[in-house]
Amino acid sequence: MITAACLTKGSTSDEAARYIFSGVDVQLEYHRIIADVFLATAEGKTQYSVIPIENTIDGSVGLHTDWLVDEVELPIQTEWVFPSIQNLIGPSSELTEENGEIAYDRIVKVLSHPVAMAQCLQYIRKYIPHAELEHVGSTSEAVRIVRDNPHRGWAAIGQISAAADNGLDVLERSVTDHDNNFTRFLLVGPEPFRNGEPNLYKTSILINMPEDHPGALHQVLSAFSWRRINLSRIESRPTKKKLGDYYFLIDIDMSLDTVLLPAAIAEIEAIGYQVRVLGSYPSYNYVAK
């Protein structure tokens, strides 16, 4: 049996974990904060950690990236994309009219994770602009709080599975502002993992420059360019050593088990830059199951 740590039960991370482990004997261990998810695997309590790393609307999750780079040494073993579909959840007996329509004027507070809330702001402003918005640690926690506080006019934004687990109703499905809202997840841990045929193989690297100078990034990119190696993502993050000092995080659409990519990395190292490989792994697009 595989063991994996992820964020709380009923969250998008929980649903994404069940997706990537589909057909696999797995035991999921749930945590309220991302630090505990990482540490569960870093300390050997689980084999893997499930990490949301980027969202269509909100972009990269900086805290999670920093943990991956600065706090633990857990290689990326798999990447997959999962839809982030948020729903308005609450007790229908309290928050709907006799005809079944939502009584928006009865909703006085909406609770959710800040990222999920941000994905639904247009919906909230249109239908519940009067409601107080409260951020909590996860979407599943928001649903539990609503369950434990009946008759107060509270609703949550979260997943359908969380509503079912807590005996609440889905008042309205898919209240996310954009239909193409997806989250990119990473599976990190000491051992390779693959479940089915991937769409492609990718490699993630971290590049530190000993000193900033004109044309530094161009030198790095040219090592990939003339070899026709496709880069799917480039992100700069502060090194936290001094103001204005950054490293580059680069995702490459190529496995490390090739001739071209190791040669490109060797060229970058030869001009004095430090390269750290964060992982070379299979990548899966979402397919409804």
Automatic annotation (TrEMBL):
Provenance organism: Paenibacillus baekrokdamisoli
Domain of life: Bacteria
Catalyses which reaction(s): prephenate + H(+) = 3-phenylpyruvate + CO2 + H2O
CDD domains for this protein: ACT_CM-PDT, PBP2_Sa-PDT_like
Protein name: Prephenate dehydratase
A GO CC term assigned to this protein in UniProt: cytoplasm
Name of the gene: pheA
UniProt-recorded Gene Ontology molecular function terms: prephenate dehydratase activity
EC numbers on record: 4.2.1.51
Enzyme class (EC, first level): lyase
Alphabetized UniProt keyword annotations: Amino-acid biosynthesis, Aromatic amino acid biosynthesis, Lyase, Phenylalanine biosynthesis
GO BP annotations listed: L-phenylalanine biosynthetic process
Pathway: Amino-acid biosynthesis; L-phenylalanine biosynthesis; phenylpyruvate from prephenate: step 1/1
PANTHER family per UniProt: PREPHENATE DEHYDRATASE P PROTEIN, PREPHENATE DEHYDRATASE-RELATED
